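User: Sequence recovery, please. Input:
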């Protein structure tokens, strides 16, 4: 059984397309998951940004809703969640992702963080073969 599939390895926002709409609701009244809505909003916001939007089912962060993983080769990765699946949230994520992509190691100074991502960070993940220093 093959679980993994190929994806571009440049800067990317990996969005869980099966995430809940909110802490209380699994999907909209029309049956659409929050992750699918966020993915569509991210694709629109990222157009021309140089940051890929990649989708996959379930990031295993089900205690949080509308989760994403921000990653790039050789950089610290981040998992963020608890977003509303809106264009405003997508713009903040993409704005942060552009600054992240331009950074050397994946560290964006706090003063450059858009308000829309503050309070949404869940975990940082060191790149393979490296650890974050003291």
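Assistant: Recovered sequence (134 residues):
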């Amino acid at each position: 059984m093959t679980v993994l599939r190929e994806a571009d390895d440049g800067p990317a926002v990996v969005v869980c397309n099966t995430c809940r709409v909110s802490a209380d609701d699994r999907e909209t009244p029309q049956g659409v998951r929050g992750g699918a809505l966020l993915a569509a909003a991210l694709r629109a916001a990222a157009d021309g940004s140089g940051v890929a939007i990649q989708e996959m089912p379930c990031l295993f962060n089900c205690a949080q809703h509308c989760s994403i993983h921000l990653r790039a080769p050789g950089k610290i990765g981040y998992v963020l969640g608890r977003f509303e699946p809106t264009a405003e949230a997508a713009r903040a994520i993409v704005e942060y992702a552009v600054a992240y992509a331009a950074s050397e190691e994946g560290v964006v100074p706090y003063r450059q963080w858009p308000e829309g991502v503050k309070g949404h960070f869940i975990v940082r993940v060191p790149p393979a073969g490296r650890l974050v220093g003291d």
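The chain is about 20% helix and 15% strand.
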